[in-house]
Q: What sequence folds into this?
């Protein structure tokens, strides 16, 4: 049985780590380099860095900051935000990223998923899907959750899998920052429909939430931000709890 992964997420705005609720009302959460180093030491399995305003502002991800963070890490590191070409991916991998995450650019040009998977290998291509429940149907949103599309999340997840994505980072916009628990329902639906790992994101507030998304939600990994940034839950304590729940985690 594959071990379940615990992944802290650094949402970056203006060079600082931020956190909000439902993608809004952002507050400062600290220095990203210091946080990254702390998480590596605390036993995180991987780290995700999302430059949340890069697409909105029409610019590239902060390569210098990626390089600085990578220098302090010994765990896999995924970078997203403003990535729209093979050149962008090449620069970030050279800066120390192990995987890249694309969202808006993949929706705009689905063929990009095929091209990147072919060029760099599926193992380093993560497709991030920001999903929102509208009238009982989940739809994909882009540009940091600001732009709704008419693409249904379930169909999009299946399409990017067929195109060569290696993982899906599924963020429930409804649950994001609420600490009311992951959206187990949509996570389970997507996890059962695709053959690649699904990272659940949005809503973590307690250790039990992780247990539920791993068991009932069928997630392969769970991502969280504020509960780790503000030391509400320690990663080692979380892993011990999951181990006691008979959920396989890397100690």
A:
């Amino acid at each position: 049985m594959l071990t379940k992964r615990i992944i802290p997420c650094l949402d970056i705005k203006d060079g600082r780590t931020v956190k909000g609720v439902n993608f809004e009302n952002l507050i400062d959460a600290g220095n990203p380099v210091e946080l990254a180093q702390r998480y590596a030491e605390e036993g995180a399995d991987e780290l995700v860095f999302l430059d949340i305003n890069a697409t909105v502002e029409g610019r590239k991800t902060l390569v210098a900051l990626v390089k600085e963070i990578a220098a302090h890490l010994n765990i896999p590191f995924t970078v997203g935000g403003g990535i729209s070409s093979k050149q962008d991916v090449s620069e970030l991998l050279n800066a120390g990223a192990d995987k890249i995450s694309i969202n808006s650019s993949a929706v705009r040009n689905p063929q990009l998923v095929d091209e990147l998977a072919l060029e760099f290998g599926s193992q380093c291509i993560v497709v991030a899907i920001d999903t929102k429940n509208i009238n009982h149907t989940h739809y994909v949103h882009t540009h940091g959750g600001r732009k709704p599309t008419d693409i249904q999340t379930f169909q999009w997840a299946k399409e990017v899998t067929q195109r060569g994505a290696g993982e899906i980072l599924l963020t429930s916009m409804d649950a994001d920052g609420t600490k009311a628990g992951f959206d187990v329902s949509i996570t389970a639906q997507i996890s059962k429909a695709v053959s690649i790992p699904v990272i659940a994101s949005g809503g973590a507030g307690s250790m039990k939430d992780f247990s539920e998304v791993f068991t009932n939600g069928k997630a392969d990994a769970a991502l969280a931000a504020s509960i780790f940034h503000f030391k509400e839950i320690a990663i080692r304590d979380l892993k011990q709890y999951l181990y006691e729940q008979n959920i396989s985690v890397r100690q």
Q: What stands out?
A: The chain has one domain: 5-244.
